């Protein structure tokens, strides 16, 4: 049977309608969620992402500030801006777009963001809360992955979830979130032996390795939920995921397309985090 396509864009739009309604209610109480996005330098992909975040804020009635710093801005300058935003009451969420220019210490910058305003969920306090299971701001892409799985109607508890990739941004946090949902979780990575065999035992397979079409049907258990976090630019200029979509289509039960799967969820989860942060800061 052909897999069901998980429509990330449709799901994301539905969640945005809910966020818009919540925001209107909050605004009636005099609270407008506020997001500050900081972009350093001229990275083309980052510029597109930052533009999309700004647009989402406008669409949902959020207050937003975008700070565009030149590529030779100093670390001190960036840290001073973060300090100002940490203390600015109209801003509930701060996001520094990554990657940063090489002369800036990324860890020092992430550590400087107040955990209360860490809508990316990258601060060590947020990561710790994620592992402990406390109600914190969750990293956006992993939270989007969980939401997509839940909306298939397939329950996560008791299932074998295999995550391919162990990055700090996706692989590790998504594994922790799956564990929180009571899955039995296996993490595979570049040094894993028998990856195919392990992946083929997964009821839920999440792939985040950054290699175009690396995962085909021989990695997929019949009927599995396959979530593709990869976005790779092919030589033809087209986008492709880490999963070979056409190849897994006859084996998987559900699969996310690229584009139009996980991608649209990330910014929506950022907006949800900003709304949550605004509520927490006014509680
Ligand atoms: N660059 C690519 N993805 C992300 C993300 O999720 N957050 C930030 N801050 N930068 C990114």
UniProtKB/TrEMBL annotation:
Domain Tetrahydrofolate dehydrogenase/cyclohydrolase catalytic, first and last residues per copy: 6-120
Signal peptide stretch: none
InterPro entries linked to this entry: Aminoacid_DH-like_N_sf, NAD(P)-bd_dom_sf, THF_DH/CycHdrlase, THF_DH/CycHdrlase_cat_dom, THF_DH/CycHdrlase_CS, THF_DH/CycHdrlase_NAD-bd_dom
EC number: 1.5.1.5, 3.5.4.9
GO biological process: L-histidine biosynthetic process; methionine biosynthetic process; purine nucleotide biosynthetic process; tetrahydrofolate interconversion
Catalytic activities: (6R)-5,10-methylene-5,6,7,8-tetrahydrofolate + NADP(+) = (6R)-5,10-methenyltetrahydrofolate + NADPH; (6R)-5,10-methenyltetrahydrofolate + H2O = (6R)-10-formyltetrahydrofolate + H(+)
Annotated metabolic or biological route of this protein: One-carbon metabolism; tetrahydrofolate interconversion
Annotated positions binding NADP(+): 165-167, 231
CC per GO annotation: cytosol
Known role: Catalyzes the oxidation of 5,10-methylenetetrahydrofolate to 5,10-methenyltetrahydrofolate and then the hydrolysis of 5,10-methenyltetrahydrofolate to 10-formyltetrahydrofolate.
Record text on subunit structure and interactions: Homodimer.
Protein name as annotated: Bifunctional protein FolD
Native organism: Paenibacillus taihuensis
């Amino acid at each position: 049977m052909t897999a069901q396509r998980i429509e990330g864009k449709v799901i994301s739009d539905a969640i945005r309608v809910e966020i818009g309604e919540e925001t209107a209610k909050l605004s009636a109480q005099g609270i407008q969620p506020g997001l500050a996005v900081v972009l350093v330098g001229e990275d083309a992909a980052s510029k597109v992402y930052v533009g999309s975040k700004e647009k989402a804020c406008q669409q949902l009635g959020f207050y937003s500030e975008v700070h565009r710093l030149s590529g030779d801005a100093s670390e001190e300058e960036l840290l001073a801006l973060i300090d100002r935003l940490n203390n600015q009451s109209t801003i509930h969420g701060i996001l520094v777009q990554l990657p940063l220019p090489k002369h800036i210490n990324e860890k020092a910058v992430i550590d400087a963001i107040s955990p209360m305003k860490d809508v990316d969920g990258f601060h060590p306090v947020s990561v710790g809360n994620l592992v402990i299971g406390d109600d914190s701001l969750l990293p956006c892409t992993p939270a989007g992955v969980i939401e997509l799985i839940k909306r298939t109607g397939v329950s996560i508890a008791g299932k074998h979830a295999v995550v391919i990739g162990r990055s700090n941004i996706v692989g590790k946090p998504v594994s922790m979130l799956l564990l929180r949902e009571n899955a039995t979780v296996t993490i595979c990575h570049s040094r894993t032996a028998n990856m195919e065999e392990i992946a083929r035992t997964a009821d839920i397979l999440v792939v985040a390795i950054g290699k175009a079409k690396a995962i085909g049907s021989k990695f997929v258990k019949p009927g599995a939920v396959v979530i593709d976090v990869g976005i790779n630019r092919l030589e033809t200029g087209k986008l492709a995921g880490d999963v070979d979509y056409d190849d897994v289509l006859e084996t998987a039960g559900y699969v996310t397309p690229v584009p139009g799967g996980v991608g649209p969820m990330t910014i929506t989860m950022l907006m949800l985090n900003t709304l949550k942060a605004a509520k927490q800061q006014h509680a």
